[in-house]
Amino acid sequence: MKRFIVILAVFALSIQVYAQKQAPLKKFRVLYVGGSANWESVHFTGKPDEMKKDVTQRMASFETMLKRYFAEVKVIDASAYTQSLSDQYDVTVMDGTPKPISQRQNITDASGKLTKIIPAGYLTEDFNKPMLFIGELGEKMGRSIGLKLDWYCLCLDADAHNMRKDHQIFKGPFPVKMTMITKSTPEDAFHYEYFLGKKTPETLPMWKVQTKGYITDKNFRIGMVARPWGFEDSPDAEFISSGVCQKTLDAVALGRHGNFFHWGFAASPEFMTEEAKTVLANSIAYISKFNGKGVIARKYLDRRATREYLKERKYLATKTAYNARLASEEKFAKQMLAEKAKAEVKKANGENLDQAAQMALNYKASPPQSYESFLKGRYGDLFDKFGTDEAAYARYFDENKDYFYSEDEMYKLNIDEDVKSLGIPYYDKKILDKAIGMLESGNDVAKGKRILNRYTMVNFDTPGQWRAWFDKHESKMFFTETGGYYFLIDTYDKTIPGNEYKKPGIQKVSYNKIQTGKTSHENAVAVATGLVDLGNHKKEIVIKFKVHPGYHMYANVAKEDPYIVTEVKIDLPAGYKKVGGLRMPSFNYFNDKGTTVYENEIMFVQEVSGNGKGEAVCSVSYQCCDSQICFPPVIDDKYKVEIN
User: Fold this and answer.
1) Which of 318, 458, 332 is nearest to 396 (CA)?
2) Alpha carbon distance, N-terminus to C-terminus of the chain
């Protein structure tokens, strides 16, 4: 990234003039948890004692600054931190990584392929004490509990921009003077212009937070910005400011999710401006107001696709995007060929070559990629349908923008054919009203159940119970994409059903124990069943299908098509009852008639409750096909599951 230059005259904007120096807030207790350095570890290569000294110096810098603003400050090393310590303080400032309370887990499928990484845990989900994270600590400590303070890019430098200047942290309780300087817009922001939907400004008013940054000071600690897409799609989160980075102009440098504040800038007070120190103090005071509030919407998958992602998908199908890629590759090739020529001269002269020169010698420019190849590598099945018809991709994304949804796969969007058939956007509460109406009328009940199961986290036995829940809480409902494509309720009351996430990590581990056999062209479908114990007399019966690559089974079959739809029926032993409906897997497009298919590995899950020993009988029916042939249908194959 190029260094930013001041291109206009400096002007000062005083949001609030400094008053007489304010005394520290009385009866305000801050716990500072340290352990980080001011510089990246490479800065201390071969000098471990200097790194320890720098960590100590950083902790002392925070202690001095915090005591200017707060009456009681306790400083500890992260190795001594436990969650219960935060109960004794108004705010915990986290600047070091404590010991985990749960270890990282790698989840694999039946073939041993890595399918999911469950991050290490540092806090429990019921932790609701105010906490402010410095730098990337929000990512490290917040990922396992579903915080939106995730790692978009470790590339935040020293200046802030796009601030909400009317936010409380820029006003008090300590008076703030904000000196704004007009600077060139970060070069990388122009690459993401399609997200803005308008021309990127050439300059931006900026506010200096740090006196050093990684762009101008090699190996200085780098700050972190969180993903902006869907950051504010729940009432428990707010964007406050962006900053100079290599991403979009709305990347989150300062923000809040629940009782957690993200201060993405990484410098200690020793390398902060006086103005920034005051705003940091105000941020600490501000987050204290959220004591006991906790988090409502949880983002367990950091790379979950949102409706903003559609802008990128639509843009990348254009010739404009293709030509921009060609131009970038051509520019890179010229640079590398020039470096290669220099390296060849050095080699011919017998000079020593560093690693960069050695790599340059091996560089060979690749031939330009065709537009067809460019699209095929990015769009797969859509390319098979649209080819190089740029307008067709645009129509597809525009016509379906209100019907996409994303499950637990990174950056993957599917069309919800159920919602599309009703013509109601997935994020509109009317879709729940309509689905409940289907249950009440007995018309297309299966579709209504699928919609309610997909977009809510509650289960009810009768249409009346669904209606009572919806009518009572509709006014406080909101839709969150980052939180899992669910309608949640704006409340911290744990007794109100609707916001209780199931533990994704625990369930994934349990499901992984249910392994199917191998598949082949001769035996294209393998089925396995099993039981997952949820505790409190609740269990889940799981029917897992593995479909051989290139084959599919049918999720929904249009009237005009002759295929057999996949069905699962479960008969329970005495003493057990079903809790809610059968959870159905995601499906994929097959044809324009409305037929959809299941591919790869899918699961049907039925929650049950009860006591005693018995045997559940699962009956499955399906038909498996590829692009050429269909196998004879399987009707009512039975699998037994022991329950105890």
Assistant:
1) 318
2) 61
Q: Kindly report the three-state secondary structure assignment for every residue of 443-496.
A: CCHHHHHHHHHHHCCCCCCCHHHHHHHHHHHHHHEEEECCCCCEEEECCCCCCC
pLDDT, one tens digit per residue, over 432-450 is: 999 999 999 999 999 999 9
Q: Are strands 25-34 and 70-77 parallel, antiparallel or unpaired?
A: parallel
Mean pLDDT of the region 503-521? 65
Burial 284-293 (b: 16+ CB within 10 A, else e): bbbbbebeee
- The better pLDDT of the pair 307, 269 is held by 269
Residue with tokens 């190089």: 388
Q: How far apart are CA 549 and CA 620, in angstroms?
A: 21
Instruction: Say if CB 509 and CB 107 are below 8 A apart.
Output: yes
Residue length, the chain?
644
Output the pLDDT for position 504. Answer: 42
Vertex 627: Cα angle to 625 and 632 (nearest 5):
25
What's the pLDDT at 514? 84
Please report where in the chains the tokens 């916001």 appear, as a residue: 499
Range 513-643 classified under CATH 3.30.200.20: no
- Which tokens sit at 207? 């506010």
The 10 Å CB-count burial string (b at 16+, else e) for 544-564 is bbbbbeebbbbbbbeeeeebb
Q: CATH topology for 25-295? A: Rossmann fold (3.40.50)
Strand partners, 529: 543
Percent of the chain topping pLDDT 90: 63
**Beta-strand relationship, 91-94 and 131-134:** parallel
Distance separating alpha carbons of residues 404 and 425, to the nearest angstrom: 9
Q: What tens digit of pLDDT does each residue of 224-239 get?
A: 999 999 999 999 999 9
d(CA 261, CA 297): 15
Q: Domain boundaries in the chain? A: 25-295, 308-399, 406-489, 513-643
Q: Are strands 614-622 and 91-94 parallel, antiparallel or unpaired?
A: unpaired
Q: Which two tokens stand for residue 643?
A: 């329950």
Question: Using CA atoms, how far apart are residues 137 and 336, in angstroms rounded to an integer?
Answer: 36
pTM for the predicted model, two decimal places: 0.75
Neighbouring residues of 440: CB distance < 8 A, sequence distance ≥ 6: 463, 467
Please say whether the beta carbons of 404 and 307 come within 8 A.
yes
pLDDT band at 25 (very low <50, low <70, confident <90, very high): confident
DSSP 12-40: ---SS---SPPPPEEEEEEEEEE---SB-
Q: What whole-number distance in Å separates Cα of residue 381 and Cα of residue 550?
A: 12
Structure tokens at 126: 């019921």
* Residue 176 contacts residue 282 (beta carbons within 8 Å): yes
* Structure-token pair, residue 151: 């790692």
Nearest one of 63, 414, 17 to 178, comparing CA atoms: 17
Phi, psi of 87 (to 5 degrees): -65, -20
Give the residue-averaged pLDDT of 500-509. 51
Three-state SS string over 374-436 comes to: HHHHHHCHHHHHHCCCHHHHHHHHHHCCCCEECCCCCCCCEECHHHHHHCCCCCCCHHHHHHH
CA distances, 136 to each of 290, 311, 479, 481 (Å) = 21, 27, 27, 23
SS3 content of the chain, % helix, strand, coil (to 5): 30, 25, 45
Instruction: Please state, as a whole number, how many other Cβ atoms lie within 10 Å of the Cβ of residue 214.
Output: 21
Can you tell me which residue has the tokens 């559609």? 310
